[in-house]
Specification:
The complex is a heterodimer of chains A (105) and B (352).
Chain A (H helix, E strand, L loop, with lengths): L1 H8 L8 H8 L5 H12 L9 H11 L13 H12 L4 H10 L4
Chain B lengths: L2 E4 L5 E4 L1 H19 L6 H12 L22 H4 L13 H10 L6 E3 L6 H5 L2 H14 L4 E5 L16 H4 L5 H24 L8 E7 L4 H18 L3 E5 L12 E2 L2 E2 L5 H11 L3 E3 L10 H16 L25 H13 L7
Parallel strand pairs in B: 3-4, 4-5, 5-6, 6-9
Antiparallel strand pairs in B: 1-2, 7-8
Helix pairs in contact in B: 1-2, 1-11, 4-6, 8-9, 9-10, 10-11, 11-12
Chain lengths: 105, 352
């Protein structure tokens, strides 16, 4: 079931930029607006956001987490700190992490 | 030439091109008549005819039209039983969530307990919090915390409240209404408890799934909970429904002056938006005695009525037995990929 949906219609999560668009949908943006917002922040087109070839390299360059294991590239909460800055949004887990570590401004 | 497709129970069926189009028209008309909404257009029917007539096993959206996936039921498909299409893989949910992120490339995910009802989950509150907290440190994609309000568990024999299904056959309508009003308060309290406690764990949102499975009282509990969670904590809320129409077990309950019993998806959406919902998931149940084209056209008609008026993202449920998908524990990819793509290309869904 999941595989079928992923093949037919998914943005591909962190294989591409599906996680970033999902974050904007949590802000109540519909798909076109959410894609446009993320594309503008990444300086790519909305079509590029579902392209795992383009996004694989761009994600590593931006250091926002990659689908494959690459030593030294930001992972987990570190990647989300950078995503929050990149998209200019607050991410709850990042805010909680900053509180716990005393990094909260 | 015959076109090979499936029935709502997933068995094969062959249709002529005329029979296919007739099924699509009748499915759309069935939804339109019930909910007083527009039928699918000729162009939309043409797309669906071509899609079902194509001999390919897989169908998909046009490149660039891909959408975001949200998920209910956590990793039950991995480590639960057949009830959740689960394969009982020896995988815990921390590993499972990581696999959904990396191996499957899901756009978001949900943390939840296998039971998935709020009533038992509240007893495991600390454990649930810990798993959310730990997963937030190791994952990148948005993580919801999810559960079913499942008001049914609050009634006897599972719960302490009198069961309206026991009272109604004896004509005890006032008593049946009263017990639902009392039970919904308890359910709402638990829903708020399990939502609020996820804020400091770093949750990205809360997913209420299979909403209104026990009718209008359950829907009211969730709308009130959403109002609190979205308003007080600021956590985004996704509401996934349980069926296309809210059943009126109570019959007189209202939210914001609107009677809940008998509401169709586009009407449910309007109330969910008022309550503060971030993402709405309409559900259209599959009729196993009808073909997949009939069921999909019916589902698309309901979903289109939502996406045409929505101010928030619409993620229709396209799982086992809903959204045109056959009611079968291992639905075939030929129909799943077609329902998936059509929900976006015709239904104009923002996600699934």
């Amino acid at each position: 079931m999941h595989m079928a949906h992923l093949l037919a219609s998914s943005m591909g999560g962190i294989r591409a930029a599906g996680d970033l668009v999902a974050r904007m949908q949590l802000k109540k943006m519909r798909i076109t607006e959410a894609k446009r917002y993320v594309a503008d922040k990444l300086h790519v087109t909305p079509l590029d956001l579902s392209d795992p070839t383009l996004m694989r390299g761009l994600r590593e360059e931006l250091d926002i987490g990659t689908i494959t294991g690459v030593p030294g590239v930001a992972k987990g909460i570190a990647a989300k700190v950078r995503i929050a800055e990149l998209l200019d949004i607050e991410i709850n887990s990042v805010e909680q992490f900053k509180k716990k570590t005393g990094l909260h401004k | 030439m015959k076109i090979l497709t499936r029935m709502g129970d997933s068995s094969n069926v062959e249709l002529t091109r005329d029979e296919l189009r007739k099924d699509l028209e009748e499915g759309s008309e069935a939804a339109a008549k019930k909910a007083k909404i527009p039928i699918l257009t000729e162009n939309e029917l043409d797309y669906l005819v071509d899609m079902f007539a194509a001999p390919t096993r897989i169908w998909g959206v046009q490149r660039g039209n891909e959408v975001v996936m949200t998920k209910d039921g956590c990793v039950n498909a991995l480590n639960s039983s057949r009830m959740s299409s689960g394969v009982v893989a020896p995988v815990n949910r921390e590993v499972g969530v990581r696999l959904f992120e990396s191996m499957l490339g899901f756009d978001s995910m949900e943390v939840a307990h296998n039971d998935y009802s709020v009533k038992p989950q509240r007893f495991l509150k600390a454990l649930e919090q810990l798993h959310m907290e730990l997963l937030q440190e190791t994952t990148i994609f948005p993580l919801f915390y999810g559960f079913m309000p499942n008001l049914g568990l609050y009634y006897r024999p599972d719960g302490s409240f009198e069961n309206p299904s026991d009272l109604l056959p004896f004509g005890k309508i006032d008593e049946a209404r009263r017990t639902q009003e009392e039970a919904l308060e308890a359910c709402q309290k638990d829903c708020i408890l399990m939502s609020d406690c996820m804020l400091e764990m770093g949750a990205d949102g809360i997913d209420y799934d299979t909403v209104a499975s026990t009718g209008d009282a359950e829907f009211l509990a969730v709308l009130r909970t959403t109002e609190h969670v979205a308003g007080e904590t600021g956590l985004p809320v996704e509401i996934g429904m349980s069926s296309e129409m809210v059943l009126g077990f109570h019959g007189e309950l209202e939210y914001d002056g609107v009677r809940l019993a008998g509401l169709w998806p586009h009407q449910q959406l309007e109330l969910c938006e008022k309550a503060g919902t971030a993402i709405f998931g309409p559900v259209v149940n599959t009729n196993t005695k009808k073909t997949v084209p009939w069921n999909l056209a019916r589902a698309l008609t309901f979903v289109k009525a939502c996406t045409e008026i929505a101010k928030i993202p619409i993620h229709p449920n396209v799982g086992m037995g809903v959204g045109g998908i056959p009611m079968f524990e291992t639905p075939a990819v030929d129909v799943v990929t077609r329902c998936s793509a059509a929900m976006i290309e015709i239904g104009k869904a923002d996600g699934l």
